Amino acid sequence: MTTIAVIIALVALLVLLAIKTPVAIALGVSGALGLILLQGFGFAGNVLGSTPFSDTANYSLTIVPMFILMGMFAVRANLAEQVFAIASRVARRAPGGLGVATVMACAGFSAVSGSSIGTAATMSKLAVGEMRRHGYPAHFAAALVAVAGTLGVMIPPSTFLVLYAILTQQSVGQMLAAGIIPGLLSALAYTIYIMARGRKLTTSADASLASVSAKAHTDAAQLRGLRSKSSVASGTTATATVDAPAQQPAGDTTPWRELPWRGAIRVVILFAIVLGGMYSGFFTSTESAAIGAVAALVILIIENRKKGFKAVLAAFRSALQDTGSTTAMVFMIIVGSGILSTFFIAARVPDTITSAVAGMGLPPMLTMALLLVCLIPLGMVLESLSILVITVPILYPIAIELGFDGIWLGILIVKLIEIGMVTPPVGINVFVVAGTSGVPSETVFRGVTPLFFVDLAVVTLLFLVPQISLFLPGLVASTAG
């Protein structure tokens, strides 16, 4: 009966996802169905009544909306535009310089946004059009932003790393520290690939970045005017995730002193407040997230003060609205996955998998590799957050039983989730970039293929050399001790 219940629950989950049922509801309904088949209506009713509270009434989870809010404020403070302007100036002479600048800007903005989707949406507004006008093929320009945008789930403050730490009772501070080197390593791998292909990427190598940026600035100004009229006519206010950027990056001839260095300084300040305060012992991880959000609000006010009080208030209101909707989505998925995880535990799915794996007699490294590889096809059919909250309760006990480090496992899971975010047919980052840049999604998917193999090489390195992920957490632990 247990096996039948598991099969029916999984089939129900796939069917609900196939008919485009919201992920949280699909998880909850399939889990509830499995519990009813396994334990009856009484037990299922108790789980449905208690799980929404028990899984969300956790003080540690308050760090999630705080990091989301900080990222929303950072978007509306034009930090992405300023970081991209500096990156394009720094990388102007490198092969594939604008592509390198895009990766640098994604990495820098990820350090304050904590969101892959937010990074991809913001950077696609800035970078895709720039690269296309500079001669980059549409499929490569859009795919690069989609893939580089995934750095938002690895480089702290990452919501995914925080949720993993909470799900597995790991230290949030050590988990965030673990994401720094793998995140930078991923950015470096993308950069090396772009530079290796740099001379072949552009179709108009003689075009200057200055003329490109000037044209982009004109286009953005016209677009802002059109949208401003549209907003007045409709009585609505667009959010920063869909607005045209207020400031386009400077060209390669801009004097160094005229670059928007305030953006880089503000990113460093936010990063230092969140991680420095956490690791110095001045703040807890939750307090550092809240203080980071307040600091981002101050930056938003300073950046927009010349636009007037109404503009600042509109930016503040839209940031709160976006934070509320994103947080609600995250918590709904946590509740739905909690119900499904309760069913898995009641059906002894983790124990069954552990026993089956142990009975195969394979080396622990090979066993773990086979289990982790299964996350890639999951990324083709499931939303990234769902993969995290469903698979962690299953994979984590197995990894610990086999003698692996929980932090190392978390980095690998999150990195594989990154790959899932650009893998068809779900590939959420691809659809975000396609929607904001106007490049067809099938074109973006075509460009993702070579970068997919770059990511696989990074995952393999992280798997074979655990110390890459564990070096900084070890320093944090020794300092705390």
UniProtKB/TrEMBL annotation:
Record's subcellular location: Cell inner membrane
Keywords: Cell inner membrane, Cell membrane, Membrane, Transmembrane, Transmembrane helix
InterPro entries: DctM, TRAP_DctM
Listed transmembrane segments: 28-49, 61-79, 99-128, 140-166, 172-193, 263-282, 288-305, 326-346, 366-395, 407-432, 452-476
Name of one Pfam family that matches: DctM
Residues in TRAP C4-dicarboxylate transport system permease DctM subunit domain copies: 10-468
Highest taxon listed in the record's lineage: Bacteria
Keyword Cell wall biogenesis/degradation applies: no
UniProt topology in membrane: Multi-pass membrane protein
Protein name: TRAP transporter large permease
